[in-house]
Design goal:
single chain; alpha/beta; Quinone Oxidoreductase, Chain A, domain 1; Rossmann fold; seven-stranded mixed β-sheet; six-stranded parallel β-sheet; 11 helices; 16 strands; 22% strand; disordered N terminus
């Protein structure tokens, strides 16, 4: 699930930034008039130029759409902004929806890409220094994170205890699961919940949140390794769709049908999910990844039969897009962080160690990371690390 966070959502994030601990203390750099005033928190000069990824043509083929720019000027933070040195950036399935222009047909290349990141403040404007300091770890949701440095409005920056990729997994993937299930899942003890792509970035949270609600959870996946992971986070019935028929297993094991479906695949899996719904069941659409790489962005479904299928079961289908629910973002993120800190939530991160060329390190590896996501082999959230010559003290 990817995210474009509008002005209202960004202002909301700013209203609660003080709820996070501000644990670092360093001199604020407040004069940002010229780049030679940039000094990072370890005392070394911030480079004049950086790398970033830019969409240079519209296409669902990420490699065709996106270009690595090797010598882009490091941006200058304004009065109310932070300059953040990215340490980890998140990969989302719909990065290619963004690169193809599907989220905003009026946008024309070139434009920046990437939705979420976590790193350290290395410079900031005068008013931003009231609540932030150089060296402070922050996370954010803002377009353009596929870059070594990014300016982030202080009122949307999220202070975090440490620069940890596990916290990055909660920003979009975790909150999508939390809010959508709260809004449309109506979870309660004993309900049967089906999570498709259950071992993925957001599926892992849907599984665990449903188990926390004492539901019986079925999760689809594509390998025995993923099935093992699902069992480790509490999934009652993992189904490897490459070796089993999802529809047949559900019919045999859950003949009364599924009460709640958390669906992100689309196409044939969507049809199976609809047909597996119980009376008064709810299906939540948070994506349809099977169609993202097509030119139309859509995989065929048996939509003509959908009204009859829903009517005879008094069932419902709900679409969910996170930017429409930013009024609930604060509560969701705080709740997820609390669960993680209390050891009640696994935030699985996939750094790409199992990919053909190894760990995803550096902006160049974003292309590989996107390709890897669409092979369906990742377990957990795919994260790219951006190393720097100056190591962080955090």
């Amino acid at each position: 699930m990817s995210l474009q966070c509008g002005p209202a959502g960004l202002r909301l994030l700013g209203q609660w930034k003080r709820t996070w601990p501000l644990i670092c203390s360093a001199r604020a750099i407040v004069d940002m008039s010229y780049s030679n005033h940039f000094v990072d928190f370890q005392g070394s000069s911030i480079p004049t130029y950086m790398k970033k990824l830019v969409v240079t043509q519209l296409s669902p083929d990420f490699r065709k759409a996106v270009t690595l720019m090797p010598n882009v000027p490091v941006p200058v933070p304004g009065d109310g902004e932070l300059l953040v040195r990215n340490r980890y950036i998140g990969i989302n399935a719909s990065d290619i929806n963004f690169s193809s222009g599907r989220y905003d047909s009026s946008v024309k290349p070139p434009f920046d890409i990437g939705f979420e990141g976590i790193g350290e403040v290395v410079a900031l404007g005068l008013s931003a220094s009231k609540n932030f300091t150089v060296g402070q770890p922050v996370a954010y949701v803002k377009n353009g994170c596929f870059a070594e440095y990014i300016t982030v409005p202080a009122d949307i920056a999220i202070p975090v205890p440490l620069v940890k990729p596990e916290l990055l997994t909660l920003l979009i993937s975790g909150t999508t699961a939390y809010i959508s299930l709260k809004e449309f899942g109506y979870l309660s003890e004993g309900k049967k919940v089906l999570v498709t792509a259950a071992a993925g970035g957001t599926g892992q949270f849907a599984v665990q949140l449903a188990k926390n609600a004492k539901c019986y959870v079925i999760g689809t996946c594509s390998s025995e390794e993923k099935a093992g992971f699902l069992k480790s986070i509490g999934c009652d019935l993992p189904i490897n769709y490459r070796s089993e028929s999802v529809a047949s297993v559900i019919k045999a094991k859950i003949p009364e049908g599924i009460d709640v479906v958390y669906e992100s695949i689309g196409g044939k899996m969507f049809d199976i999910a609809v047909n597996s719904l119980a009376t008064k069941g709810h299906l939540i659409i948070i994506g349809f990844i099977s169609g993202y790489q097509t030119s139309s962005g859509i995989m065929p479904v048996k939509a003509g039969a959908l009204p009859a299928a829903l009517l005879r079961k008094s069932a419902s289908v709900h679409g969910f897009f996170l930017p429409h629910y930013m009024s609930e973002y604060k509560e969701a993120l705080l709740a997820l962080v609390k669960l993680y800190q209390n050891g009640k939530l696994v935030c699985e991160v996939d750094h790409g160690e199992q990919s053909p060329e190894g760990r995803f390190t550096g902006l160049e590896s974003v292309f590989r990371a996107v390709d890897y996501m669409y092979t369906g082999k990742n377990i957990g959230k795919i994260v790219v690390e951006l190393p720097h010559l100056v190591n962080s003290k955090l």
